[in-house]
Design a protein that fits this description.
The chain has helices at residues 17-23, 65-74, 91-105, 122-131, 172-182, 222-236, 247-266, 295-301, 304-322, 342-353; strands at 10-12, 27-33, 56-57, 60-61, 79-84, 110-116, 135-139, 160-167, 188-193, 241-245, 272-273, 279-285, 330-332, 337-340, 358-364, 372-377. With 380 residues, it is of the alpha/beta class. The protein folds into two domains: 10-262, TIM Barrel; 267-377, no CATH class.
Length: 380
Amino acid sequence: MITGNPYYSYNLSELPLGCQYCVRGEKLVLFVTGLCPRRCYFCPVSDQKYGKDVTFANERPVEQQEDVLEEAEAMSAKGTGITGGDPFVKVERTAEYIKKLKKKYGKEFHAHLYTSLNLVTKEKLQLLAAAGLDEIRFHLDLDSETLWPKLEIARSFSWDIGVELPLLPNKEEAIKEAIAFMQDKADFLVLNELEVADTSQSQLLKMGYTTKHSLSYAVKGSVESGLRLLESVREKYPQFKVHLCTAKLKDAVQLTNRLKREAQGVKRPFDIVSKEGLLTRGALYLPELVPGFGYREKIALANKERLCLTLEQVKKAVQEKLQLQEKELFLDKKKPRLLLAAKLVRKHKKRLQTLGVIPAIVKEYPTADQLEIEVELFQA
């Protein structure tokens, strides 16, 4: 019987090095481009990104290379997982990011990359190897073996080679065939529990797949299929390294640990960090830009320069009224608002309302998008 590990997943032999960094939340997720040569019916990439040449570092939109370095700094990253789309569509861009990160953080900064075999050539692999890529993970097409021999090309370079496969319950035999092919060509295999994505690309529900229960995105029977495959590998290829990565690992371990790291990097002196890595803080909003329906759209369309000028005046008035030091009040220019200690908002909410702002206590992610989880508004 296969037993679980402390990360709510299952493995034969030790975890691949890239996975070890991920479960500790130490990897920057670098989404190089949403462009991809394939149209997988289980693709989880959001409609905001799929088919578009956009780059994100975690949740931060990347407009210049320094944005990637800034996000890595914010979370004290020790490595990066490079994904897409397919990074090979923009392989030169991908190589540049690897070189930039290695230059700043050193050769020990671990970089792993996900790609299909569609665009693989020896020249592109050479470019990434020269940039310092440490680990490459290939997605094999379970419906066609045509490109599988390309896996051999990667063996010319001194990096770890992995294969990633989605745990489609009705593809168990095809996965066994893929394992038989790769077990002497790759260093490890990662089997991913299948999840239904709320995107136009994901067709799983239309194809008859169902989720475990109403509160889960994980596909019913996916993990069970993976456990049977692990038993098969243990019997036939006992030395082969395999990791069955579950949806719970991604949410409860990998994401939570990353949020904790990011929270420590971005928190203000007055912020309270929860055990899940969320920030609780006080906020002062102008009446025209208060969280609620259409808030994100309002931020995108707002005249932030004008709003920040108004908030600068409010900031001075708040400092004077509450006798606050500079470090106790922060002007957030991305989402024009003032930030301060939640306890100050609760204690002085009525006095703050007289200054023409709406006080609130907010619980939000420490990510670049500062997504709100809870907002308690104190309106007169």
